[in-house]
Amino acid sequence: MPQVRLIGENGEPVGVVATAEALKRAQGVGLDLVEISPTAIPPVCKILDYGKYKYAQKKKAHEAKRKQVVIHLKEVKLRPNTDEHDFQFKLRHIQRFLEEGNKAKVTVVFRGREMAYTQRGRSLLDRVLEGIKGHAKLEHPPSMEGRQMVMVLAPGQ
């Protein structure tokens, strides 16, 4: 006959009892028999109100999720011949993303013959680094990925 380690409705350990007896005890007090630790030998069961148990678990999970901090990766795309005003505009966006606690992915997109001028893209990314100095740290240095030069910035020093 299978046995379980039983914990009473007030949290006190009852001991190892037969499963049928544990069910009778739970029904006797008008509560449910819930398996708490199925991998233990013998399995651990507790006498409690299953509805309240599920509700408490859901509340605990919700609280944990509320306290969780989510960091997003925001992307800003540039071209090798981006004008000064547009560059400053994008730079302000990058600074705002970093101040909000998000990471910023700065991408320079090359089209057609622009692939011959990858040093322009590199100098553009260097200007971005110079512009956000003190606001962020370089998480992923500039590297070519196909027709794009990509760098990732993280908030902080």
Secondary structure blueprint with pairings:
Blueprint: E1 3-7, E2 13-18, H1 19-28, E3 32-37, E4 44-48, H2 50-66, E5 73-78, H3 84-99, E6 103-109, H4 118-131, E7 136-145, E8 148-155
Parallel strand pairs: 1-4, 5-6
Antiparallel strand pairs: 1-2, 3-4, 6-8, 7-8
Summary, kept brief:
This protein has helices at residues 19-28, 50-66, 84-99, 118-131; strands at 3-7, 13-18, 32-37, 44-48, 73-78, 103-109, 136-145, 148-155. The chain has 157 residues and is α/β, with parallel strands linked by helices.
Notes on the structure:
- The chain has 157 residues and is of the alpha/beta class.
- Helix content is 36%, strand content 34%.
- The protein contains 4 helices and 8 strands.
- It has helices spanning 19-28, 50-66, 84-99, 118-131, and strands spanning 3-7, 13-18, 32-37, 44-48, 73-78, 103-109, 136-145, 148-155.
- The strands form 2 sheets. The protein has a 4-stranded mixed sheet with strand order 2-1-4-3.
- A hairpin with a 5-residue loop joins strand 1 (3-7) and strand 2 (13-18).
- The longest helix has 17 residues, at 50-66.
